Structure of Glucose-6-phosphate 1-dehydrogenase:
Amino acid sequence: MSTTPNPPVSSDQRNATPGLSCKLSANPQDALSSPAGKKPAPPCTLVIFGAGGDLTKRLLMPALYNLAVDGLLDDGMRIIGVNHGERETREWCDDLHTSLQQFAADKASTFHAGKLDDNAWNWVAQRLEYMAGEFESDDTFAKLKQKLDQSTGGNAIFYLAVGARFFKPIADRLGKAGLLKEGDGANGGFRRLVIEKPFGTDLASARDLNAHILSYAQESQVYRIDHFLGKDTVQSILAVRFANAMFEPVWRREYIDCVQITAAETIGVEGRGRFYEQTGAFRDMVPNHLFQLLGIVAMEPPNSFDAEAVRNKKAELFDAIQPLTPDDVVFGQYENGPAGVGYREEPDVAPGSTTETYAAARVFVENWRWAGVPFYLRTGKRLAVRRTEISVQLKPVPFRLFRDTPVNALTPNVLTLRIDPTHGSSFDFNVKAPGPVMRVGAVQSSFNYDDFFAESANVGYETLLYDCMLGDATLFQRADSIETSWRAVDDVLHPGSGGAVAVRGYAAGSDGPAEADALLARDGHVWRPLRQNTPGGKP
Ligand code: BG6
C-alpha cells in the first residue's frame, strides 16, 4: 500500500478521462507508464481458479486492466485462467473484453472508465491463457506445474476466485503437487495463495481451513481478502486518523459517545438465494466487512506502516472485542414492500425461510481506549438507501452556556466517514444562527473526494492485486485475526439454551426492523437517519 501523498488536482486534471490519464506507449509490448513513485510489480504468473466466474469478469479483469493502464504490471507477467470446460484462449479473451466494455460503459459500475483503451487491453489480452481443468482433479495441477516455467522467475500467485467449497480441495492439491513450495524457481520464486471471503462459516470451520492451508504454506504466503480493505475510502480512514493532529486526541472514551457503522444496501439477494440461505446477513457482513471497518477505526496507532505492525494492532483490537451474545443483536428479513417482493419469494429461497437479510449489533471493545463506548453495526439488503459509512459521535459539551439551550438539546458533533456510494466525510457542529437573539443552529461541513482528486475507475481490487504481487500483506487478513473475529460472534451463531435470535420482518425499501431502534434506545442512543444526513437543516 503506497504512502506517497498525492497533490490536489487542478480542474483540468479532474475533467480528464477517468482512469486513462497516463500516457500509453504505442506498442502494447512496451511498458506502460506508471504513476510517480510507483514501480511495476515483479514478474509473476497469476493463476486464476474460476476463470469463467463473476469475480474474474467484474473485478479481477477490470483491476488488471487498470493496473496495466497505470504501467504497474511487469512485461513478463502471465495470467492463466483455470476453469472446467474446454474452450479456446481466444474465446475467453473475447468474453472478457465484451464484459469489460459493458462495465466501462455502465455509469452505475465502479469500472465506469468510458471507452476502453485498446492499447492497455491488448497488453493484458496478450498475456492471457485459458486452461481447462477440474478443480478437484490431480491432472489439473500436474498440467499447471508444467506451465509454471521459469519465465517469471518461478513467481506465482494462485487466486481462488471460486466458491468456498473449493478452497480446501484446491489448496490441498496445490500443496500436494508442490506448487506452494517457494524457492523452486531459478530466482527463488515466490508462491502465494489468495483466498476470497467467506473464510469459514464459524470459528470451527475457519480454524479447520487455516490449519489445512498452513500445513502446505507459511502464513506469509497466504493472502486472505476482504474487499472492503481495497476501497480507497476505507484506507483513507487511516490517513484521517494518523495524518491529522486534530482527531487522535479526541478518539477515545473520554470524548466519544458511540460509533455507528452502517452498510445499507438497496439490492436484494441478486440471484444468490442458494448462497444466502446458508449464510445470512450476519455471517456475510458482520465478522468480516464490518469488523474490518471497526478494526480500522478503533485500532491503536501502529509504530510503522509495515504489514506486521498494522496487523498486530488490528489483531489486538479484535482480541479486545467482548464476545457478542444473542441479546446484542437484532436480525430482520425483508417482506413485501415499496422496493419489491419479500425475501421468501426470491428464487432458491425456502418459502418458510428464517434466514436474516438484516443484522444490527452492539459491540464493546474492552480496552483502555474504548471501555464503555458502544459500537453499533448494521447492515441489510433491500433497505431504503445504499450507504456505507462510519459515524463517530462525540459526547455533549459539559456545561450549559446558552441559557435557552440545555446541552442535551444541542446537536452532537458527529464525524461521518462516507465510504460508498459517495466518497468523503462530513462534520456536524453548532454555530450561532443569524439574527438578534443568541440561538444555536446545527450545520454540516462536507468534503467530497472528487472535488479534490481526479475521479478514477478503480474497482477496489487494484491495490489488493498489486500489493499481493509486491508481497505487502498490510491489507490482508492474518489467520489469528480471522479466528478472533469468528470467536467474537460464535455465541450468536451457535446460541446455547437461550435459543436462536428471532428474525423480525421489515418492509423492502424501509429502514429495517423497528427492534433495531430498541437496541440503541436501551443505551439512550438513536441510529443516524438512513435517508438524510443534514442536521437540523435542509434535507
Ligand atoms: C459481499 C457480500 O462480500 O459484499 C455481498 O457477500 C455484499 O452480499 C457485498 O452485497 C457488499 O460489497 P460492496 O463493496 O458492494 O459494498
